[in-house]
Amino acid sequence: MTDSPIPSRRDFLAGRAVSQAAQEAARAAADKALAENADAGPRRPPSYVLHVGRPVMACEFEIMLNAGEHPEGPDAALRALDLADALEAQLTVYRDSSEVSRINARAAFEPVLVEKRLFDLLALATRIGDETDAAFDITSGPLSKAWGFYRRAGRLPSHEELAAARERVGHRHLALDAERQTVAFRRSGVEINLGAIGKGYALDRCADSLTREGIGNFLIHGGTSSILGRGSRAGLPEQESGWIVAIRHPLRPDQRLAEVRLRDRALGTSGSASQFFFHQGRRLGHILDPRTGWPAEQVLSATVLAPTAALADALSTAFYVLGPDGALAYCAAHPEIGVLLILPDSRAGATRLAIANLPDSDCKLLDETARITRSETAG
Questions:
Q1: Which residue has the higher pLDDT, 339 or 17?
Q2: What is the pLDDT of residue 281?
């Protein structure tokens, strides 16, 4: 065994020391796995996962790699997280210097030129809004402000406040010019907020970064509510390949309701367990219906599986607003989209589950007391 060189201060600042330590840990874990199973015969060897993470977008972004699979994996993960930092600086509405804040400040007065991939994201968001009967809307920021959720302090707005906010909400107020790659607002007071799609978009960009560097097996999550898996965790047979993630009870987070297998797709979960308040005994959460201005109340949590994390994030919000009928109808027309809705039940402490396009091989239910409705799309 050779001695490791002592990292310099510059190495620490550049992240090289972290990467070096991660690579050494990965090699050690792989060596341990081989040593422990040298005489194990056909028994499946244990697999070890290397975690690389940092705080981004008000949560912990984490990349998980198969230990020892790619010596350059930790460095690639650090570069992907650097990209996530840059995307936060572009997309956030909490910094006046961001590109989205610049759009919000100018687009009511003149068309604003938008970076190509951000323009494509705005176009995707408006298309999802059209497809979900406006249940998803990136202009709903005024409603969040009226309800106090923008600053994480929920309150009941007055009738006048709510009416004024609703007048400024609706992607009909956005004028996207694909040829000139500009966005303009058709009225003053409109603003864009990408909070319900931006994290998933960042995961997609991080995944593309890893793929370009030759990393094929990884799991990325942003605060555990947005997750993307490519390839598989090491050591699994083909029929069990992928990455297993848990779906927890929206009101009792120590309880797992289901396990879902991610194989080259993403998962997004929306719920109001972290932001809500009570008014006259009524629980009011932070996910608002852009069409009414009021908190959505039909669903406890909505989990969506989709080809991209941006799509999974946006649709989980839309399905939370639409409720089971609208969500299942959307999935009937889009067999590539899977959903698991956790719904309130008349029985005390119980839940109902509505599931579409998630076969048993990809979704293992753990709550034996839940009432389950399954809807599968042929083909």
A1: 339
A2: 76
User: How many Å apart are CA 271 and CA 316, to the nearest integer?
Assistant: 9
Q: Which residues contact 8 (CB under 8 A, 6 or more apart)?
A: none
Q: b/e map of 137-148 (b: 16 or more CB within 10 Å)?
A: bbbbbbbbbbbb
Q: How many CB atoms are closer than 10 A to CB 166?
A: 17
Query: Model confidence over 287-332: pLDDT tens digits?
Result: 999 999 999 989 999 999 999 999 999 999 999 999 999 999 999 9
Higher pLDDT, 277 or 270: 270
Fold type of domain 99-185: T-fold (1.10.3980)
Q: Domain residue spans in the chain? A: 8-93+201-240, 99-185, 242-375
Q: Which residues of 167-202 are buried (b: 16+ CB within 10 A; e: fewer)?
A: ebbbbebbebeeeebbbbbeeeebbbbbbbbbbbbb
Q: Which residues pair with 185 in a beta bridge?
A: 174
**201-205, 281-285, 292-296: least confident range:** 281-285
Give 242-375's CATH code, choosing from 3.40.1000.10, 3.40.50.300, 2.170.190.11, 3.10.520.10. 3.10.520.10
Q: Which residues, in sequence order, are bridge partners of residue 340? A: 303, 355
For residue 185, give the nearest of 122, 102, 108 by alpha carbon. Answer: 108
Whether the CB-CB separation of 271 and 257 falls below 8 Å is answered with no
pTM of the shown model: 0.86
* Token pair 């929306």: residue: 270
Which of the pair, 192 or 32, is modelled with greater confidence? Answer: 192
Q: How far apart are CA 9 and CA 224, in angstroms?
A: 32
Q: Please give the full DSSP string across 332-362, using - where no structure is assigned.
A: HH-TT-EEEEEEE-SSTT-EEEEEES--TTT
Please count the other Cβ atoms lying within 10 Å of the Cβ belonging to residue 328.
21
Separation between Cα atoms, residue 35 and residue 38, nearest integer Å: 5
pLDDT tens for 168-197 read 999 999 999 999 999 999 999 999 999 999
Q: Give me 98's structure tokens.
A: 């961001």
